[in-house]
Amino acid sequence: MEEYFELTAPAIVFPGQDDPASAYRVAHDLLRRRAAQEALGILGPALAEDPGNTGLRMLRAWAYLIRVQLQRAEAELRSLVEENPGDDWVRFALGRALERQSRFDEALPHLRLAAAMSADPEHELAVLRVERLAGKL
After folding, report:
1. Range of the structural domain that residue 57 is part of
2. Per-residue model confidence as pLDDT tens digits over 12-32
3. What is the rounded CA–CA span in Å between residue 3 and residue 127?
């Protein structure tokens, strides 16, 4: 007579869940792979330990953008822009979050600043795209 038993897999534990520096590296890697939910699982405990960590907050905003949680992304990015208005990635990400909510007039100043600060062709194309969508061309 055969015996059957059930095995349950242990929960996935990512390295660095206790250390903000390791959490940053792991979450960044997960986000590059578009695994936003898993990254948020890493970022939550790390931000509880170090709530003012700008790098972790930027990753959380990126995860929100990937998951199309645009209001959460916008709130996080607005806070980051207030703290560091000269960060072109934060400006660009905020502009994209607003654009994806069809708030083109609000998005344009952020996208224009990001394009001017970075000279990144992707940022310049975003400005042109949103200007067209806003009827400004």
Report:
1. 15-67
2. 555 555 567 789 999 999 999
3. 65
3 state SS of 3: coil
CATH number where 123 lies: 1.25.40.10
Tokens 């609000």 locate to 106
**Cα 70 from Cα 107, distance rounded (Å):** 13
Question: What per-residue string of b and e applies to 108-122 under the rule 16 or more CB within 10 Å gives b?
Answer: bebbbbbbebeeeee
* The pTM of the whole model exceeds 0.85: no
Phi then psi for 3, rounded to 5 degrees? -105, 140
Q: How far apart are CA 108 and CA 131, in angstroms?
A: 7
- pLDDT, one tens digit per residue, over 28-79 is 999 999 999 999 999 999 999 999 999 999 999 999 999 999 999 999 999 9
Question: Is 98:112 a contact under the CB 8 Å cutoff?
Answer: no
* C-beta of residue 34 within 8 angstroms of C-beta of residue 60: no
Residues 77 and 58 grouped into a single domain:
no
